[in-house]
Amino acid sequence: MAQEQIKSVQGTEDVLPGRWGHWRALYATARRLFERYGYGEIRTPIFEDTRLFVKGTGETTEIVEKQMYSIPRAGTTTTPGAEVAVEGITLRPEGTPPVIRSYLEHNLHKQRSFQKLYYIGPMFRRERPQRGRLRQFHQLGVEAIGSDSPLLDAETIILAADILREVGLSGSKTFINSMGCAECRPAMRRRLHAALAQRLGELGEDDRERLQRNVFRVLDSKDERSQAIVADLPPITADLCPACAAHYDQVKAALATAGLEFEEDGHLVRGLDYYTRTVYEIKHESLGARDTLCGGGRYDDLVKLLGGPPMPCVGFAMGAEATILAMEGELGAAPESSMRPGVYVVCFAEEARRACFELVQELRRAGMSADMDFEGRSPKAQMRAANRLGAPICLLMGPDELNANKVTIKAMAAKKQWSVDRSELVRELEAQSLGLRGEGT
């Protein structure tokens, strides 16, 4: 009786070699632009003290209430109204609180208060798996810490849009709004609560509860009934205080000056408690209802909330899986693997196999991409493999070459071949100028 095959856990996926073309392009583009904009890389552990997310992300957020993968400490209690143990460790569901925790723990604010940091890595949330939304997923994000300049808000938005543009996406759209600050948020909250309470019976069941705990989460609802009600509400920017209104106007002016097209969405909020003032999302039309590629904004109170000095911050997180889906939808499948060898060594006799292996290693040490047969196939089958891989050069090694200490070079496209002394091989290949050096030739 055959044993049951073990498969991947629901909500995770394997990225096979044929899909890595878009992943490589996204990661390489993001790193290049992050560093062009002056952001330095930071890496934090994939699990943190659970209290970091309860306090930083917010007790009433969907993430903390329902989605965290946590291991509680023995004998711990849960937060009021939620099944979350506040003492234990949690696989990180997002990148911002860990970066701020690291910023404070290592006293980066004492070395230089203004820091621009970026991260790339896996995150974990226990949510219903669907297209583009997994339980293990990957984010690329930035955190600019130590300035309240609206120009910095604009910079992060432009940076995110630049990444998407440079990977070839033209169908993405940028939406912005302002959620105000501690001064204007109470009036905003009262007006929203009063307006939504009048239509309480029309809201979705979850949103009726959210209305009592955090009214802004109703604006972020995915329930179609609630979305229809929210669409009738005045924009929340109507309640901005003069300082927040001026800040928002300067963000919009900076984006316009930079030539970035955007739309204002007066009901746009982010589903995390720490956001203040500017919030934004970049969406792509090919993804359907779950169309957000990138979300971010300003969070001026988070550093103080996590035990540091008052320190304004702004940043974003871009979903890698959603962005890859958008790239596949707009650009088509990823190109065939770019890891083709520049040189393929063909063995014509068993006694030459070790010499072929030594030759491959010599070429690799010289900086060339090289490979050979490891399956004991016939010379004809090896030549077919070289053709299939697209190697521009084949090196032929048999008894004659072995005895004469020579190598036969075959230029595949030109269908020409010639012999050289083994000691001259690297120089001869370099003279061909066929792009044999490095990976991805």
Protein architecture, described:
By secondary structure, the chain is α+β, with helices and mostly antiparallel strands. It folds into two domains: 17-331, BirA Bifunctional Protein, domain 2; 343-432, Anticodon-binding domain (Rossmann fold). Helix content is 37%, strand content 20%. The protein has helices at residues 20-36, 50-56, 62-67, 96-105, 108-111, 150-166, 185-197, 205-213, 216-219, 224-231, 242-257, 302-305, 320-331, 353-365, 379-389, 399-404, 425-432; strands at 40-41, 47-49, 70-72, 88-91, 115-124, 136-145, 172-178, 263-264, 276-284, 292-298, 313-319, 343-347, 370-372, 393-397, 406-411, 416-421. The chain has an eight-stranded mixed beta sheet. It has a five-stranded mixed beta sheet with strand order 13-12-14-15-16, sandwiched between helices. The protein has a three-stranded antiparallel beta sheet with strand order 2-4-3. Helix 14 links the parallel strand 12 (343-347) and strand 13 (370-372). Helix 1 (20-36) packs antiparallel against helix 6 (150-166) and helix 6 (150-166) packs parallel to helix 11 (242-257). The protein is elongated.
* Content-based structural category: alpha+beta
CATH superfamily of the largest domain: Bira Bifunctional Protein, Domain 2
Sheet with most strands: 8 strands, mixed
The CATH topology of the largest domain is given as BirA Bifunctional Protein, domain 2
Low-confidence stretches: none
